[in-house]
Design goal:
Blueprint: H1 2-15, E1 31-34, E2 37-40, H2 58-64, H3 74-96, H4 101-112, H5 115-125, H6 135-147, E3 154-155, E4 161-165, E5 172-178, E6 192-194, E7 197-199, H7 207-222, E8 230-236, H8 246-253, E9 263-267, E10 274-279, E11 281-290, E12 294-295, H9 305-316, E13 327-336, E14 342-343, E15 346-355, H10 358-382, E16 391-400, E17 403-404, H11 410-421, E18 427-431, H12 436-440, E19 445-448, E20 453-455, E21 463-465, H13 470-489
Parallel strand pairs: 5-8, 5-9, 9-19, 10-18
Antiparallel strand pairs: 1-2, 3-4, 4-8, 6-7, 7-21, 10-17, 11-15, 11-16, 12-14, 13-15, 20-21
Helix pairs in contact: 1-3, 3-13, 4-7, 4-13, 5-7, 7-13, 9-10, 11-13
Bound molecules: zinc ion.
Length: 490
């Protein structure tokens, strides 16, 4: 196929005159603006040809045309032939996919049938899935995969939902989204709907991603796509906060697919064109300061854990960090104590530290740990006359490794190009997501968004706007198909 397209280009470049060039030059999709977001329709143009974005620079097309070529010597011609042949290879997947009838039908089907996925997203979002409490939502997802024909869909021993759609060769692409939310069980997860706008805890992060897995499976089935790659759908547990990526860690380190995964996509949250190919490393601690405790007045003079915690915070909060590599920290929660008139016997805090660079993160961690020692020591010295001493427990509650996915990798190119094909303007990025784990293992992985618009993630006013949300699913389908093509080229 690749050779055929390559030869077609060569034939075209050599034989046809410039009047036919328009069929091969860039045909821009029809743009329109909606809600300030640039989108494109998949339509046919006025001569019944599919509108495809052919990433062939016009200048290059000009050079290919012997009519336009000012250097028509046979030597130059041979050179250009070779150049054209080489350059045609990566163009193949980009130029042909939207011309494919099967693909175009599938994309049109997604748009026509999209309303059901908005309903399904609401249903998923209304099943509570706090950290370490994802089971009910996992059962729902497993049953959704089963009802779509993957009868072997199951929940693994960590709690991930696993559903395999077999391909024809020994290559496995994981398409995943996370089951868990940041919201505790007691929070109301009812979704309020106002037209295209949905309001609800976790509606974007990551009910949007979960529903896209089901939509992708439907599109692959409806279009009868026989991918080379095995598509392994995975709904992971423990992506957020204290979950510490436990689901994806299990998938890659212990589960039955460990060492069998070739590429990984995480669909996380609403939105458009970012292709996350860098992993932010993070380290999280729970610090507990422990003392004897006593009456606020009667025992006055003994060491006070709350005072020590204050010292620690005051030291650490003054830490300067570089802007580049982006490095951040936050004391996210503090707690402890018994009553206003009691010297507490223990107080605690939880701290999040992140950096794009492992070495910088290690440096920050060192500074943090010495702030802890300094703060505790200060209180011990200040109250030493009492003969009491504080103790401190430093517990790592999060450790996310870093990594990068090459922009040359099939999965990155597929993510980038699929976004271009739906009229987006893709860009790369760095974040802390399920992709951290495969990236840290050198397995190409990217995190993309599910489409639609969303905001307020991890906030009580989280929202999702389903206007044109079908484009996100079209993009995901194209991405998976392009990955298949690019991988077979490699
Ligand atoms: Zn998320």
């Amino acid at each position: 196929m690749q050779a055929v397209i390559g030869l077609a280009f060569l034939f075209h470049s050599l034989v046809y005159d410039s009047s036919t060039r328009s069929t091969f030059s860039t045909v821009c999709p029809q743009w329109y603006n909606h809600g300030g977001v640039r989108r494109t329709h998949f339509l046919t143009n006025n001569v019944g040809q599919p509108e495809a974005r052919l990433l062939l620079p016009n200048r290059l097309a000009d050079i290919w045309h012997p009519i336009n070529n000012p250097f028509r010597t046979s030597l130059k011609r041979s050179y250009l032939l070779l150049l054209a042949l080489v350059l045609t290879l990566p163009v193949k997947g980009q130029s042909s996919i939207l011309a494919d009838e099967q693909v175009r039908t599938a994309l049109a089907g997604i748009e026509t049938n999209y309303a059901q996925y908005v309903d399904l997203q609401i249903t998923i979002s209304e099943i509570p899935a706090p950290p370490f409490g994802e089971h009910e939502r996992a059962v729902f997802m497993r049953d959704q995969f089963r009802s779509r024909g993957i009868t072997s869909a199951h929940i693994d021993s960590e709690g991930n939902v696993i559903a395999l759609r077999p391909g024809s060769i020994d290559r496995t692409l994981v398409v995943s989204a996370h089951l868990d939310t940041v919201w505790p069980l007691e929070d109301d997860v009812t979704v309020k709907r106002d037209g295209a706008r949905l309001m609800g805890l976790g509606i974007s992060d990551d009910a949007a991603g979960l529903v896209s897995l089901l939509g992708l499976l439907d599109a692959l089935e409806a279009g009868d796509f026989n991918t080379e790659s095995h598509i392994l759908f995975v709904a992971t547990v423990g992506e957020e906060g204290i979950g510490d990526l436990r689901g994806v860690k299990y998938l890659f380190r212990e589960g039955s697919y460990a060492n069998k995964i070739d590429a990984f996509i995480s669909v996380d949250g609403a939105g458009g064109d970012r292709v996350v190919n860098g992993a932010t490393a993070s380290k999280r601690y729970k610090i507990t300061v422990i003392g004897p405790g006593g009456h606020s007045s009667g025992a006055f003079g003994i060491v006070n854990p709350a005072h020590a915690l204050g010292n620690i915070i005051s030291h650490f909060a003054a830490t300067a960090v570089p802007v580049e590599p982006k490095t951040t920290y936050s004391i996210g929660r503090i707690g402890g104590g018994i009553s206003v008139n009691t010297i507490p016997d223990s107080v605690w805090m939880e701290v999040d530290m992140r950096s794009k660079e492992v070495a910088t993160l290690a440096e920050l961690e060192k500074t943090f740990l010495s702030a802890v020692d300094m703060g505790v020591n200060q209180e011990n010295v200040f109250r030493s006359a009492s003969g009491t001493q504080l103790e401190v427990d430093k517990k790592v509650i999060g450790d996310r490794p870093t990594g990068t996915t090459s922009e040359e990798s099939a999965i990155y190119r597929a993510g980038f190009q699929s976004s271009v094909l739906v009229g987006g303007e893709p860009f790369s990025g760095t974040s802390s997501t399920d992709s951290n784990i495969p990236m840290s293992l050198g397995i190409p992985a990217v995190t993309i968004s599910a489409g639609g618009l969303g905001g307020g993630a991890h906030n009580v006013d989280e929202w999702y706007d389903s206007t044109d949300a079908h484009i996100g699913l079209q993009r995901l389908l194209l991405m998976v198909l392009l990955f298949d093509q690019y991988s077979s080229v490699e």
